[in-house]
């Protein structure tokens, strides 16, 4: 008995549509975030995360309406990330029904924004998203650095130190994505996941690289993650959320079934 | 055919942010003869059939805003006479005192304090536990109560909090949870019920609790 580890499906949303395909199921639903969110909700997802990749800020209004529509029908926690740069952005998303917001690049360029946001809205709704890449060579002590712009631009910031600083500034949760692993289906970078999870007292969500259900198990058992996030393995129907939870339960992990 | 009188539920808005989820979940659980009103007007609260006190953010701001908005008399009046449900920081606000924000006196409806888990919180075996307590945990029902109707014992609810309440009168504890220690997550006396978790984020069992509240006559 105790707190369950969480499975969080992630939807990339562009101008109100899910862009990582879901064409396998029912073409009428494909790409509609409300329908996708409802399906994951029915499958037993513990939370849902939306990453807004809309290029133009004018189109953000679409995301606000989408969050409103989902929050009226899906009664599990919702996190919205992407393009969150000001307290006004946060206020709009929370008022629309988001429970948490993910702050990524804006935190790197202006760490004080995290402090301000946590003071104003409470740490419980501030998730700091960290994109990390391994920079140590084979044989050296492991070292990971924060990158921006989809993993293209190094910042010189040590990932573990950065995570600790963000928690000190008021982050209530860390969403850690390995840019080396993202999209590879080779599994999480367990080293950086464990290093950060052991260094901070807030929950850590592992992300980037999930290709099968054993990777989810590894993220929790070896990576010490409190939650695991995945996109494509669920979108393309390879696995359902239930199957993932069953595998994790079989591995001795406490889950909400 | 005469029109049936609508039952009203006041969701108290004291300026602490998002009440969208709470109102939407109540609407989802309600029938057509129930209207959900998000309000900061004491008169509306006084006239409502049921009252829900939500809570987010830090306790000092919560209690401060309740006082600033002139809502405390209406909250106390409601707790004295009609079905009343408090959630999350709402449960903490009903205690005598919270140690958050350097110590804050609360509404003292239930005697006892809200305590911090601590940043070095550990499980029974000594392993590290994360704070806030965030996610789905099992709620043990320690009292039979109309608000637990059709909710299985040990059902999981969604939590996010760093402080927990310790009521002095253990017979008022309606539910507990285990996170390094067993602590109170639901408290009940007469027509007042309060929970630490978020029913509006707890899927079908959470919606069932709201439904039970909407049908509750205020008797234990």
UniProtKB/TrEMBL annotation, chain A:
It catalyses: 5-[(5-phospho-1-deoxy-D-ribulos-1-ylimino)methylamino]-1-(5-phospho-beta-D-ribosyl)imidazole-4-carboxamide + L-glutamine = D-erythro-1-(imidazol-4-yl)glycerol 3-phosphate + 5-amino-1-(5-phospho-beta-D-ribosyl)imidazole-4-carboxamide + L-glutamate + H(+). It is found in: Cytoplasm. Its EC number is 4.3.2.10. Its main location: cytoplasm. Belongs to the HisA/HisF family. InterPro entries: Aldolase_TIM, His_biosynth, HisF, IGPS_HisA/HisF, RibuloseP-bd_barrel. It comes from Marinomonas alcarazii. Keywords: Amino-acid biosynthesis, Cytoplasm, Histidine biosynthesis, Lyase. GO terms for biological process: L-histidine biosynthetic process. This is Imidazole glycerol phosphate synthase subunit HisF. GO terms for cellular component: cytoplasm.
TrEMBL record, chain B:
The keyword Iron does not apply. It catalyses: L-glutamine + H2O = L-glutamate + NH4(+); 5-[(5-phospho-1-deoxy-D-ribulos-1-ylimino)methylamino]-1-(5-phospho-beta-D-ribosyl)imidazole-4-carboxamide + L-glutamine = D-erythro-1-(imidazol-4-yl)glycerol 3-phosphate + 5-amino-1-(5-phospho-beta-D-ribosyl)imidazole-4-carboxamide + L-glutamate + H(+). It is found in: Cytoplasm. GO terms for cellular component: cytoplasm. Residues 11-214 form the Glutamine amidotransferase domain. GO terms for biological process: L-histidine biosynthetic process. Its EC number is 4.3.2.10, 3.5.1.2. The active site is at 88 (nucleophile), 198, 200. One of its GO terms (molecular function) is glutaminase activity. Keywords: Amino-acid biosynthesis, Cytoplasm, Glutamine amidotransferase, Histidine biosynthesis, Hydrolase, Lyase, Transferase. The keyword Transcription regulation does not apply. Pathway: Amino-acid biosynthesis; L-histidine biosynthesis; L-histidine from 5-phospho-alpha-D-ribose 1-diphosphate: step 5/9. CDD domains: GATase1_IGP_Synthase. Heterodimer of HisH and HisF. NCBIfam families: IMP_synth_hisH. IGPS catalyzes the conversion of PRFAR and glutamine to IGP, AICAR and glutamate. The HisH subunit catalyzes the hydrolysis of glutamine to glutamate and ammonia as part of the synthesis of IGP and AICAR. The resulting ammonia molecule is channeled to the active site of HisF. PANTHER family: IMIDAZOLE GLYCEROL PHOSPHATE SYNTHASE SUBUNIT HISH, IMIDAZOLE GLYCEROL PHOSPHATE SYNTHASE SUBUNIT HISH 1. This is Imidazole glycerol phosphate synthase subunit HisH. It comes from Marinomonas alcarazii.
């Amino acid at each position: 008995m105790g707190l369950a580890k969480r499975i969080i499906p992630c939807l990339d949303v562009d101008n109100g549509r899910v862009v990582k395909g879901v064409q396998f199921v029912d073409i009428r639903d494909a790409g509609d975030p409300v329908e996708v969110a409802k399906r994951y909700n029915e499958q037993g997802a513990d939370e849902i995360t939306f990453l807004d990749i809309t290029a133009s800020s004018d189109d953000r209004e679409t995301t606000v309406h989408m969050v409103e529509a989902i929050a009226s029908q899906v009664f599990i926690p919702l996190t919205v990330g992407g393009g969150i740069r000001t307290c006004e952005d946060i206020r709009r998303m929370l008022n629309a029904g988001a429970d948490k917001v993910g702050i990524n690049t804006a935190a790197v360029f202006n760490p004080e924004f995290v402090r301000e946001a946590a003071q104003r809205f409470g740490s419980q709704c501030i998730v700091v998203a960290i994109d990390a890449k391994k920079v140590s060579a084979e044989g050296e002590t492991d070292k990971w650095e924060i990158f921006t712009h989809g993993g293209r631009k190094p910042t010189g910031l040590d990932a573990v130190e950065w995570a600790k600083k963000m928690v000190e500034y008021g982050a209530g949760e860390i969403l850690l994505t390995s840019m080396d692993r993202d999209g590879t289906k080779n599994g999480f970078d367990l080293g950086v996941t464990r290093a950060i999870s052991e260094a901070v007292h807030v929950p850590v969500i592992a992300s980037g690289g999930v290709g099968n259900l054993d990777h989810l198990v590894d993220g929790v058992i070896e990576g010490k993650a409190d939650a695991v996030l995945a996109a494509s393995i669920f979108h393309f129907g390879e696995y359902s959320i239930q199957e993932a939870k069953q595998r994790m339960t079989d591995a001795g992990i406490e889950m909400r079934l | 055919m005469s029109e049936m009188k609508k039952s009203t539920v006041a969701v108290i808005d004291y300026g602490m942010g998002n009440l969208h989820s709470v109102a939407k979940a109540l609407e989802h659980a309600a029938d057509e003869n129930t209207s959900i009103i998000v309000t900061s007007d004491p008169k509306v609260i006084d006239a409502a059939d049921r009252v829900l006190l939500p809570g987010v953010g830090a306790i000092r701001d919560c209690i401060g805003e309740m006082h600033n908005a002139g809502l405390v008399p209406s909250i106390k009046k409601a707790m004295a006479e009609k079905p009343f449900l408090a959630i999350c920081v709402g449960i903490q606000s009903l205690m005598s005192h919270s140690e958050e924000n350097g110590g804050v006196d609360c509404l003292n409806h239930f005697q006892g304090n809200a305590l911090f888990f601590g940043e070095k919180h550990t499980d029974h075996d000594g392993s590290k536990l994360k704070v806030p307590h965030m996610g789905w945990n099992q709620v043990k029902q320690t009292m039979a109560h109309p608000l637990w109707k059709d909710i299985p014992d040990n059902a999981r609810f969604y939590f996010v909090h760093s402080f927990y309440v310790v009521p002095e009168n253990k017979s008022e504890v309606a539910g507990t949870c285990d996170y390094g220690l067993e602590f109170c997550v639901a408290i009940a006396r007469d027509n007042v019920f309060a929970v630490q978790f978020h029913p509006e984020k707890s899927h079908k069992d959470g919606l069932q609790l709201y439904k039970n509240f909407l049908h509750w006559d205020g008797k234990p």
